[in-house]
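User: Last request for today: this protein with zinc ion, please.
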Amino acid sequence: MRIAVLSDIHANLAALESVVDDLPEVDTIWVLGDTVGYGPQPNEVIARLQGLGARSVLGNHDGAAIGIVNPRYFNPDARAAIEWTAAAADSNARAYLAALPEVRRDRELDLTAVHGSPRDPIWEYITGVDIAAANFEAFDTWLCLFGHTHQPIAFRSTDGDVEVTVGLPDTRVVLERDDRYLLNPGSVGQPRDGLRDAAYAVVELDGSGPGAIEFRRIGYDVDHTQSLMRELELPYRLVERLSYGR
Ligand code: ZN
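Assistant: Here's the final one, the structure of the complex with zinc ion:
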């Protein structure tokens, strides 16, 4: 069983298409929220995910775009972009976002998926081992996939001791059955770890045996996304950061 794990696509269709082209053969695609916001093509990205049959959860930007999440923690650039997104979203996109769950659990795969964290799926950022340790108490499956920080990372809990592996490109982490994991694939559409290539991950599961996560990167046409954003007059800083992955 192979699962492609994508998060924080942020309406960046060029980045999503590069990831889709780069995917190995997978059985299913999971998306960890923030499908829209910041980027220029929310309707196209949602239609593409629908075509792929992706299983998604709700992110803070997704909820804010349709008025069900209060954007109180948004900085001015994020707020300007979400106002544009709310106006641009077509009826299909709005219906899609409105139907997304905050938490998705698959008992057969022993897997939970959220955007932020299991104890606060919309807003909490899992940025370090202390926050991760507290969150291992908040889900009851072997694995929990999360996004929101835009940082590829794996937290492993061994009897409550949490250890971290940064998801550098081509890093592969074995997932032991006796441990539990919080796993973030990084961001497809707005990486923030200093690398501009789109980030995603592939999780391999093998019955009741150990599994693995592979952190992957693929380049995409950053200039194309940036020129669309400039035409739409999306905030300058949001355009620029895509060049640097910051
Ligand atoms: Zn995000």
